[in-house]
Every structure is written in structure tokens, then in C-alpha cells.
Amino acid sequence: MQHRNLNIKCKIDVENETSLIALPAKLHCHGFVAQLEGGTWMVLITEALLKERDKQAKWNGIPLLLQKLYEHSHPNSDFSQCQSILKEISPLLSMEAMVYVTEDRKAAQESSFPNTYTFDLFGGVDLLVEILMRPTLITQKKKQKISDDLIKDCLSILYNTCICTEGVTRRLAERNDFVLFLFTLMTNKKTFLQTATLIEDILGVKKEMIQLDDIPNLASLVSSFDQQQLANFCRILAVTISELDTGSDDKHTLLAKNAQQKKNLGPSRAEINQATLLNIPGFIERLCKLATRKVSETTGTSSFLQELEEWYTWLDNALVLDALMRVANEEAEQSSTESSDESGLANTSTRTQLPQSMKIMHEIMYKLEVLYVLCVLLMGRQRNQVHKMIAEFRLIPGLNNLFDKLIWRKHSASALVLHGHNQNCDCSPDITLKIQFLRLLQSFSDHHENKYLLLNSQELNELSAISHKANIPEVDAVVNTDRSLVCDGKRGLLTRLLQVMKKEPAESSFRFWQARAVESFLRGTTSYADQMFLLKRGLLEHILYCIVDSECKSRDVLQSYFDLLGELMKFNIDAFKRFNKYINTDEKIFLNQINSSLVDSNMLVRCITLSLDRFENQSDAKVAEVLSECRLLSYMSQMSMRMSFLFRLINIIHVQTLTQENVSCLNTSLVILMLARRKEKLPFYLRTLQQMEYTEKYPGFILNNFHSLLRFWQQHYLNKDKDSTCLENSSCISFTYWKETVSILLSPDRTSPCAIVSYIEEAYMDIDRDFCEE
């Protein structure tokens, strides 16, 4: 009797040539038939052996089911039997996937998932990919048609195998033809959610970022999406427009980034993909509508419940559904008495009524994805184009209208928490939405005149009045702001943000992002009117309370508050007066905070240094009064203090450890020396640094390091792609003066009194070493 064979490709490691020759006979003794094909053994297993081994190995019949699936999916088959076979396989895999998703991540990784492993081992993944793609590979006029349900089952099983069996996702990611094919399945609404989730998983591990231009008919595909599909599609876009994270802190050094930029002469894949999206007609407008629509404007209840039902079987969203359903049970009694008018279904039964909190969470999940994409585009090369579009489509007024009811809404007693997380976890949708919203505001305001759209008309008038009262010209951007695009209502978005910022608990994770968002409004050319607008709303007192009185321990939060305080007080004599009044007897506590971490506080040190220099050159009586009374200005006016700051600023950074976070220390040290140069005191400062080195019994270590840092500064800031206006605007010192000062300090002439080399003895000279990324 001849037994049927099941074809399985597997790689078999052998020790030497003798074992390689003996292998077929060895396999045959155990009921296997083997053939060598290009270094891979094609193993043929008899059906009888398979049944016998199935019981012993506890394969749960998966290999036999795959054999049946193989037989019923040949090129001329109609796939009619395939779905019933997949219905038998699917529960075996989905049980393991559910364990993986619902268990603690550590426990899940330590568990074994024999069913998904067996499914992949016996070629199940490759077979499903072949079934899905077969209609596209056949050249016959009459192409095979695969039912939507069969496609959904294939995708669901593939996804479950991906999350449970290591390496499957990466293998699929290597098949560009399959990845691009998946996008074609998104045109079908019935298979959209399964397809989108599998694509997201695959792109997350893909070594090379996909190029959106390669997706067939991308523009028509996007235009075919309804708003819910577009929001889910944003999850995929997030992977394609964000620069790939190198995953190593070392790679985030400026040295490494500069080296990478030299290698990548053209735009990156992410930048090309961003440009592709912006060329899709109506894309940004639709995102703005999604981001700003109210909960009551969302689609009908029944369609959403259908989507929730799909989420239940699609495990990537099972945790979200878990949370939603808990709230649904809590509100079931209340919802049964509510009118169904809002959903537009007058006779909807209690079972299909959708509690308001579920609607809100549904909308939050969508807005998260949309705001992320808009935020990335705002930080990209086409920033000005994106700014123009989102202003035109009234994104900011729309978000202002949602602020109280959705973005910063008060939590109910049954606040939604995802499985395995707590209410204050940064992973919860409510918290993530707030952080994403704050990041968007930061990107929107940073060094851009559109920042005044965060105000309403009355607040813009207030800025004008402040300028008139101070007898200074109005800022051009305020005058030119299109009043039809600003915020509506009694308060603009910036004012609303200040209100919630002042109520935030000391331990809140939002403090950092709130401070960054407000600071970005102030960044750029210093505006007295902007500063006074915020000072009048008690911002300075709030910041000082947080630094001095709230016992804030977070370094990130402290740094963000120091940076914000620097922008708020810079060149503003009224701010220094208010500061002195609040601090009064607490200056030692405040100065200890500054001195405890200069990396965090150096922007404030720069602000004080610049402001003191300006005030000392003014003859105004009010300025003279504040100069004589303000302890902070008096402290910085002492030469010993300035030299101490300069010495430590240079000492805490090195070329190999420079990052976007600490490079400001280098620029602050340069500001101190530029101001010294203006007063012809540069030689005195350099000589004092030399003396401080000798006091530390380590001659040359500070000045050699500073020389290297300045050489790097030239490479970094004199790059043609580098925007130097930030340095110029923040210091009110022309970039030409920055460049000249660095050149003078780096002069090789040892007779020059302003050259660093003049203050390093030959025996301790170490200035010619090349710095490169190891």
C-alpha cells in the first residue's frame, strides 16, 4: 500500500560530509523520504507516520489539516473546502495568541506556543501567503476569486502566528511582493482591519522602510477610505514617515548623527514618504477634520459595533476592547434608558446602544494616530507647506473647541485603563492623547509665526495693547495673523493650556510636555508682549513654585521649567522684578537647584548672562533699581561666579558625548565668552581658565577639551543644511559674531591673546586629535 506524502522544506544541520551522505538512509529508517535541493532537504513524510507522530508530539492534527489545505488549494481549485479547514486550524492558534496578548509580557515570552510553532514548521505560513497571492500570479483571463471570509481567516491566522512564533514576522517583512500585495487588500472594507493590523506588525520589524510610492494606486487607495479607515491607516503611516530608531543611546550623539548625514546625501526614505503623502489631494484636510470632529459627529452606532466585533477577533485591539466592554457593562443600565436619537436609529435595541464613554474612547484612539502623523509632518522638510495647510483647515480652533470635553476632559470614576496598566500609566489612551496633543502644540509653535493662531481675537488685541503701552512696535506676525483662523470662544488654546498647567499635580507626567509646549510659543526672537501676556497670567510664579516649593524630583521636568523660565525672563526687567519678589529669602534654594545640574539649568544661566549684559548697558532708572535689588543678577555679576559656571559648562561635555540635550552647554559657554570679547576681556577669561586648571592640578584638560568642542561646533553649525537662525534669535547676537568668535578662539597663532592655544603649554597640548564615531 502506498502512503501519501506531505512535502515539508526544512534545513537540517549535519556535522560532516559522511553524515550528509548517510542522512537520507537515516531519515528513511524513521519513515521519512528526503531529497537534497540546493542545500535544503525536502522531507517527505508518510501519512501513517504523521498520524503516529501527531499523537506523540501533540501536534493537534495541524500537519494533517495543512495537508488537506494544500490539496484543496491547488492552482485549479475553487478554494471551496479551504475555509472549513481554516476554521479547524484557527481556534488552535487563536487560543495561544490570546494567552500571549493577555498575559504579562514577560510570562508570555517565557511560554511556549506549540500550535503556532507547528503550523509554521509544517509550512502553514508559506501556504497561506501562496493562497492569498495566487490570483495575482495566475495569468489566465479568468482569475480565481477568493472570498472575503477566506481572506480574513488567512490574515487572522498569519497575524496570530506572527505574534506567537519568533521570526515569522521578519520572514514576511523580507517579501516585498507580499507586503505591497497586502495594501491592495485594504480596498475591501470587509478585510481592511485585519490587513491593516498585519501590515503594521510587518512594517514594525522591516529592516528597510517601505517606499509609499511603490504602493499601487496609493492616492486612489487613500481617497477610497472612509474616516475610520483613514484613522487606522495612520497607524501604518506612522511607521513609514518616522525616521528609524537606531535603538542605541550612543547613536543619538551629534557626532553619530553628523556622520550619518554625510553617508545619506539625499533625502531619507521617511522624508520621501512625507512628500508623497503631501501630494495626495485632500489628505491633510481630511486629517484635520478627523482630528477636530466632535464625538457626536462620528458614524452610526451599528457600524461601530460591527467594527468592535472584529476587534474582538483581532487580537491587536483586544486590550482596547477589553477596556471598552468593562465600561459598557457599568453603563448598560444607564444606556438602556437613554434615547437613541443621537445614533440616528430610533428603534435600536438596548444591545446595540453605545455608551458615551465608549464613543469617547473610540474617538480618542483615532485622534491619537492622526495627531501623531500631523506632528511628524510638522517637523519634516515640508514644514512650511504643512503649516499653511493646517492653518487653512482650522486645526487649532478645532482642537480648542475639543479641549475641555475630550482632550483634557475630567476622568469618570470608571476611567478606561488597558489590561495590565494602571490609570496613571503613560500607555493609557487618555494620557497618550494628552501627550500627543502637547507635542503637536510644541511642533506647531516652535519658531513659526503661526503660533499666534493659539490665541483668540481678544487675546491678540491684548498683545497689541501691551506693545502700545510699552511704546514698542507690534510684532509683524501679530499684525499679519489672519483673524478668521484664530481660536474661537472666551479663551484661546494657549490660555487653556496655562490653566490646566497650573492645576497639574507635582508628580504628573504632563508637566514636562506642558512646559515644552508653552516654551515653544516663546522661542525665537524674544517678544516683550508675549512674555507680559504670560506673566500677567501668573506663569512665572507657577514655575518658581514648581522649582522651589513643590519638591519636584524629575530631572526632565526641572529642565523643562528652567528652559521655560529662561525664555520668559530673557531681557525682561519686569520679569526679574517679579522673580526677586517671589524668591525673596529663598535664593539659596533656587541657586542650589541651578548648581545641582548645569545641563538642566544652563539655558537659564544663558538668559541671566544675556539679560545682565543688556541691563548694564541701559541708563533707565527702573533697570538700575532692579539691578541693585535682584539677588539673581547680583550673583551673576560676580566674576568668580561667571568663571565657575564657564569652567563647569566646558567640563561636563565632550565631543563624544554631545547630544541634542547637552549641546546647549557648549553654546552657553560661547555666549559668556562672546560677551567677554565685546568688552575686550576675552584674554582675561582664558587666562583665568588656565589658572583654574592649575588649581585643579590638571593643566590643559579644560582648554584642550574646549578646543575640540569648538572644532566640532564649526563642523556642526557651519554645515550648509544647518539652520543657524535659532542661535541668532535666542541670543540677539548675529551668527557672524558667533563664527568670528569661534575662529579667533581656534586660531593656531600662539602669540594671539585670544587664541586657546596661547594658554596651553607645549607639554600639555592635545588639540590635533581627530574625533570620529567609534
UniProtKB/TrEMBL annotation:
Region of interest (Disordered), residue spans: 331-351
Gene Ontology annotations for the cellular component aspect, listed alphabetically: Cul4A-RING E3 ubiquitin ligase complex
Any Pfam family matching the protein: DUF3689
Single GO MF descriptor: phosphatase binding
InterPro entries xref list: ARM-type_fold, TRPC4AP
GO biological process: ubiquitin-dependent protein catabolic process
Protein name per its UniProtKB record: Short transient receptor potential channel 4-associated protein
Organism: Chloebia gouldiae
